[in-house]
Design goal:
globular, 11 helices, 17% helix, 659 residues
């Protein structure tokens, strides 16, 4: 019997009356038992955000010394407030971000808001740290601030936090607030005292600290004459011990494929900033000296894929390595001790090769990590360096602990022009992979890619007897500029052509039974699922699209009243592809039955996109159904909704494919 350091969080209770249930849908529809976890500075406690029934979440405190059941100290309903992350400011006090979506109107999209609160680890002393506007304010605050520096030792509990300053009407008072823009404050989460560290700047978009309380880098994105964000960010830096700003570089925002140095983290001791830039058509990691010379060094590059992430540990978010994805995500550690530890953990955790360090005690002698793989949804562990001991805290998805998951195999298949397209094939457990129903599942984005590992949506359909192929079609990120092309919308013919070739490969290999091929996608993947039938109406016999883009011009117009409109406009582009690449404008070519799911508070892709698709398909005589989820956004972050979606999609596919 497995013994966990903490008692497993109780599974969500789902009643049969809440959905047309099948047992498998209920197990996979439940959200992760651990949505986020952090370690106290002294290494003795963890804070866990865990889902509660429906769309809510709870903040739990687990005692790693005493063990037992974690204690809930804070709840969010998910309607509209949702806990997104909580971290320890000190051994007794936490700071949490709360996300809310406020409904829009027929003509205006819903709006995202965040607020930051502090709470003691026993549940007392809750306070909002975000400074709200008042009746004299000349605007609203959507961004409630972000903690950008937890300071070094975790004893004082003070943090550095961004704040959006909004000026106030000055008529009739001398006490109005005149500052405007993004600044940085030192915040005491106990006394709720704020002290300005960096004066607000109207053009400021980002600040980066050295992890020890000093802001070293600022990103500035000014607006054009129409009030829209310009297509570049100018970065500036400070010399050590100086308050003056000096030019660092410019990041050009190019329709989803940025160019120029993009800074991410500062190392105080080395006096450098780490960031990503292009090298030989791929993304690489560089460091630039902040001593005034701007000496630039290549830290890590690959000839085959982009280097796309930093590995950071501790309260200072110390850079200790970088990551990239070949067939699987791989890590290159710069820290010798952690490099050695990573090798040891790989041996100690068979079947869980994906190891991520997610937090550490203030002295970094205790590490919090999560490890998983394709057939393991993940386990959280604590590693004690002094004792060289690894303790299993709890599983990420308790409901799947006794479920046999399917192996995920990296494969390649040929596109019509002969290009080799990478992807991941998941076959039902125990299947020989021949003559079975199959699904092509394109990823979202389009500026994204699929990776090897656990994927709840793909695993669900595999558990229901489907082969699932997830192609990293041209237009995906991670493979360099040439692979990304112009992006998955402007280069839709290539991207969707690759998606369709994935389906043809499944049939040619004898994996997909004749007439038993379907396509399922979320977000851009939903767009790809619909647009695939525009290119070839006879290939897929059923289409499931979750929160899909269906009309590119309508997507452009959704952003018209927002500051990022010019960037969205450039991303979509102009030309024949806007009409030709919009499923709703080519609905007459879609012959397969279509099932749509969409949340009515989706701020990524408005629900009007799905409603328009229904209208156009019905006008064309097509078979279509739309399931709307009230009060949910793009992620459909609700156990009951997800379970219902999985169950209905499975039933729809079986009926459409004649299973």
């Amino acid at each position: 019997m497995v013994r966990y350091l903490l008692a497993t969080v109780a599974a969500v209770a789902l009643t049969p009356s809440a959905y047309a249930a099948n047992e498998v849908a209920a197990k996979f529809g439940v959200r992760e038992g651990v949505q986020q976890m952090s370690l106290s500075p002294d290494g003795t406690k963890v804070a866990i955000i865990s889902p509660v029934k429906g769309r809510g979440a709870a903040l739990l405190i687990g005692d790693l010394v005493k063990g037992g059941q974690p204690k809930p100290i804070l709840h969010s309903t998910g309607d509209p407030d949702r806990l997104t992350d909580c971290h320890w400011a000190s051994d007794t006090r936490l700071i949490c971000r709360v996300h809310m979506v406020i409904p829009g109107t027929q003509t205006v999209k819903a709006l995202n808001f965040t607020r930051v609160v502090a709470i003691n680890s026993d549940g007392s002393g809750i306070r909002q740290l975000t400074v709200d506007t008042n009746g004299r304010s000349l605007g609203i605050v959507q961004d409630g601030g972000v903690v950008i520096d937890w300071l070094a030792d975790g004893t004082s509990g003070k943090v550095l936090m961004t704040r959006v300053f909004v000026p106030e009407e000055s008529t009739g008072t001398r006490l109005s607030q005149t500052k405007e823009g993004l600044g940085v404050e030192q915040v005491d989460p106990v006394k709720n005292e704020h002290r300005i560290i960096v004066q607000p700047n109207r053009a400021a978009a980002e600040y980066i600290t050295d992890g020890h309380g000093t802001v070293r880098v600022m990103g500035m994105q000014s607006s054009n004459s129409s009030g829209y964000d310009k297509d570049h960010i100018d970065y500036r830096y400070r010399l050590a011990g100086s308050d003056g700003w000096k030019p660092l570089g410019t990041l050009k925002l190019n329709a989803g494929s940025d160019s120029g140095f993009n800074p991410y983290a500062v190392d105080r001791d080395l006096n450098v900033v780490y960031g990503f830039d292009g090298k030989d058509g791929r993304r690489a990691l560089f460091s630039i000296s902040l001593d005034g010379t701007l000496k630039r060094d290549l830290v890590l590059a690959r000839p085959d894929v982009d280097v796309d992430g930093l590995i950071r540990v501790g309260r200072q978010n110390r850079v200790v390595g970088a990551t990239f994805v070949t067939d699987r995500r791989e890590s290159e550690f710069f820290d010798p001790e952690l490099r050695k530890l990573r090798v040891s953990l790989g041996k100690a955790l068979p079947g869980k090769p994906l190891v991520t360090f997610i937090d550490a005690s203030a002295d970094e002698r205790t590490l919090l990590l999560v490890a998983g793989g394709d057939t393991n949804a993940g386990h959280y562990y604590v590693y004690h360096k002094d004792k060289r001991a690894l303790e299993d805290v709890m599983p990420a998805r308790p409901e799947l602990e006794k479920v046999t998951l399917a192996a995920v195999k990296p494969i390649t298949f040929p596109a019509a022009d002969g290009t080799s397209i990478p992807g991941y094939l998941t076959l039902p457990p125990g299947s020989d992979g021949k003559n079975i129903p199959a699904i092509v599942m394109p990823h979202g984005g389009p500026g994204a890619r699929d990776e090897w590992g656990f994927d709840w949506l793909a695993q669900y359909f595999a558990a229901r007897g489907f082969a699932v192929l997830q192609p990293n079609f041209r237009g995906s990120t991670g493979y360099g500029d040439a692979w990304f092309q112009k992006n998955g919308f402007q280069s839709w013919r290539t991207a969707i052509g690759d998606v369709n070739d994935a389906g043809r490969w499944l049939s040619a290999q004898g994996i997909a039974a004749p007439g038993k091929l379907a396509i399922v996608g979320w977000s851009y993947g939903g767009y790809a699922a619909l647009q695939s039938a525009v290119l070839d109406s006879s290939l897929f016999k059923a289409i499931v699209a979750i929160a899909p883009v269906t009309d590119l011009e309508a997507l452009r117009l959704e952003a018209h009243d927002f500051t990022n409109f010019a960037l969205v406009d450039a991303f979509i582009g102009k030309g024949p592809h806007v009409s030709q690449g919009s499923p709703a404008r080519n609905a007459g070519r879609i012959k397969a039955p279509v099932l749509l799911f969409h949340g009515d508070l989706d701020t990524n892709v408005g629900i009007r996109q799905s409603r328009l698709m229904v209208e156009k398909l019905k006008d064309a005589g097509g078979k279509v159904e739309l399931v709307e989820f009230h009060g949910l956004d793009h992620q459909l972050d609700d156990d009951i909704a997800r379970t219902a979606m999985l169950d209905k999609a499975d039933l729809f596919l079986r009926q459409s494919l004649g299973l």
